[in-house]
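U., I forgot to send this yesterday:
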Amino acid sequence: MEALDTNAIKMIVHHLKDLMDEQRDHLLELDRAIGDGDLGLTMTKAFAAADEEASAWEEQLPGKLLMKLGMTIARSAPSTMGTLLATGFMRGGKAVGDARAIDTDLLARFFRAFVEGIIERGKTKPGNKTVVDALYPAAESLEKSAASGCDLKVALEAAAQAADDGREAAKGMESQHGKAAIFRRQTIGIEDPGAYVGALILQGFFEAVP
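Result:
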């Protein structure tokens, strides 16, 4: 596939919903270790609402759909992670603009705006053991792929791997935000639930694109 139209975005969102449903209990378990213990519920609620919104969407501009999905997530899952992901989708959709399809270059712009939005809203940065540690390397990977003219599917495969590598690297970091920050050094070696969600998002994009 050379570019993502609104139908492709709908397929991705539906697959993300399925992934979050499948991972619900694991996300709850991860979040109980160093967080509030409700991340699995938050993510299933957020992407169920996003999937419902996407399926009803009749406009043809994917950027507008992505912005609408961000608003839907903000409304349906007003938790810390819900708010951060909502910001990411809204900022990313705005970066796509009025394009009728998202090619590799535009997808790189989407994820760059997505992660920068989260960094700004969450007042964080790479290395703080958050969702950013999966999303930031994925955005960098997509930018490299766009610069070299990679096919969209190939670019997404590399980005999904970069996100998963970032998720793995985050295990060795010390939490700096939220409830997990109370434990500081005790979080070193523990899977970060936010980084796990970030890797799932890239996995969902990659797997849903034919």
